[in-house]
Amino acid sequence: MHTQHHKSDGSGHPTEAVLFGQAQAGCRESLNYLMEMHDGLVHAVVRRQVLGDLPYAEAVQEGRIGLWRGVLKYDPDRGYAFSTYAWRSIVHHVWRAVKVHARASNTEHAEAHSAWQRMARVDPATLAVAWSVHDTLHELASRLSERLRQIIVARYGLDGQEGRLYREIGKDLGVSGERARQLHTEALVWLRHPAHSQHLRSLLAYHSLADYEWAEAEALRWLRRRGGRHG
Predict the structure, then answer these.
(1) Residue-level pLDDT at 6
(2) CA neighbor of 42 nearest in space, from 93, 98, 101
(3) Handedness of CA 225, 227, 230, 231 (dihedral sign)
């Protein structure tokens, strides 16, 4: 969406209040500008938090979600600075991530022990195939673009978390739930294509000529719907 600069600070640039209004109205350019402008606030919050075992990069990512929510909800007319408003939102998201990570760490050893007990009862050949499928799927997903990879990981819980809904994924990426669904379809088309999926298909016994013809036909149908365009 094109930014409408109908107010400026005297230098030809829109005022920050105008940028907030445009971002909240759906202008991606203004949203990105404000996110970049205030990214230092996220780092300031994270440096002051007790993170425990939560990696700094993950804390920053959670803080940026808080910043994004702050940008979309801030009302300049209420008389307080954006940094004051956004600070609380950023702290909330970072602290929540710290608590979730701590709970996961506390149960990790018990879950690992239980998992090893279950695996000990599984036929070694079956277990080897399962691990091979897991590693192959992760390797294949890593070849997607960063945004498509994030969607596949979140949708199917490849990071060990519960699979997420399109609207939840869309919120994290700053897009609608419907757009997240479309991007998920795009990722699946790429992953299923015979040019990429031969190894995984052979492991799962979905590598007959009919399987490959179906996958290629699906890719062509998707491209026709997109007018021949990817992304």
Answers:
(1) 41
(2) 93
(3) negative
Structure tokens at 186: 């795009």
Predicted pLDDT at 42: 92
30 with 7: CB under 8 angstroms?
no
Q: What is the mean pLDDT of the chain?
A: 76
Q: What's CA 140's distance to the chain center, in Å?
A: 17
pLDDT in tens, 24-33: 998 889 999 9
Cα 49 from Cα 26, distance rounded (Å): 32
The arithmetic mean of pLDDT across residues 208-230, rounded, is 63
- List the structure tokens of 175: 């897009």
Alpha-helical regions (H) of the chain: 16-24, 28-37, 39-48, 56-73, 82-120, 124-141, 146-156, 166-173, 177-192, 194-204, 209-225
Average pLDDT over residues 191-195: 70
Side-chain-side CA neighbours of 225 within 13 Å: the count stands at 11
**Rounded-to-integer distance, Cα 46 and Cα 188, Å:** 35
Q: Measure the CA–CA gap between 151 and 141, rounded to whole angstroms.
A: 10
**Global model pTM greater than 0.85:** no
Instruction: Report domain 122-225's class.
Output: mainly alpha
Alpha-carbon distance of 196 to 188, in angstroms, equals 11
